[in-house]
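The records we work with from here on pair a chain with its fold. Here is one such record, which you should read through line by line:
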Amino acid sequence: MKWVRLLAALLSLAAGNAQAHLMPAGHGGLRVDEAEVMSVVSIPVAVLSGWDDDGNGLLSLAELNTHRSALDRQLAQRFRLFDGDAPERIIFQDLLFSDVRNEALTGTDHLILMRRSQWNEKIHQLRVQADLFAKAGPERELMLSAARAGTTEMTILRADRPGHRFFRDAMAVFGDAVRNGAEHILLGYDHLLFLLTLLVAGTGWRYWLATITAFTVAHSVTLALAATGMLTLPGVVVEPLIALSIVVVAIGNLFRVGVERRQRTWLIFACGLLHGLGIASALDLVGLEGTGKSLTLAGFNVGVEIGQLGVAACALTLLAVVRRHGSASMQEMAARACSVFAALAGMGWFIARVAHAG
């Protein structure tokens, strides 16, 4: 059957990154074929209501079976597809555990929504509207891809931007990716803190330019390699290492570890490669195809650089003012205070991420 093939294709997109999971948390995929769409979307149970009988915050198999009809009705209202203004006709819908091996026993904080939708005519303007966002944490956004006829597009939905229209012209796709990239880096406090820790370690525009260039080129390289599948590491490995890189650089600042400028540039480049993997794991380009993938990668990278350079410009302006008008002791105190804060924050992130991975 056609819809079974659609489902198999969607699950194959998720399999590379999901390991034992049908779909990673915070992700979803839509596969379009003529007048049908097959949806596979990870849903945080915290945004649903009326199911937590034991009050432990995890949805058990018994709770799912008891409240399945009510949850189906909620999701029919809170995740909707349209072709232009024409609403979907739901032909099939099911709710499954994400980790099929373990969560039936332990309970889950995410459900997988599987849905088959139909329209009377071929789909031209696929549009999604979602109300599935928590106020904080990873559940505050949904990374959603849509595939049709050899091309795939990706968008990031949030509470302040809950809708999106797929398969528009190239400039619209590129513009969306630029915006998503800029928003991602501005919300990536670990990346920004790492950059600031690098900048306060030295003075002078020559040092600052070399630092920004090395960091920018490095994470652009790994983002491109990860997008092509040539270099990938799971987020549970990359994210703790990113936090640890902040600690290492901050401690180097505090104890004045002797490193020549050329060696430091290569160290910054190496850390930039690592941070690029973190950006790539957040973007998750695996499974994207055709021009949609190229436009998304290029636009997202441009957005990241715009956001990063904007923050760097503000930081460098402040550092230049301190350098020009402040005493040497004031400059030293500001640099050490920033490094102490970075070391503590990085260690906190490292511990939290290792604990979460475990």
Observations:
- The chain is about 55% helix and 20% strand.
- The beta strands are 27-33, 36-44, 79-83, 86-87, 89-97, 110-118, 126-130, 141-148, 151-158, 163-165.
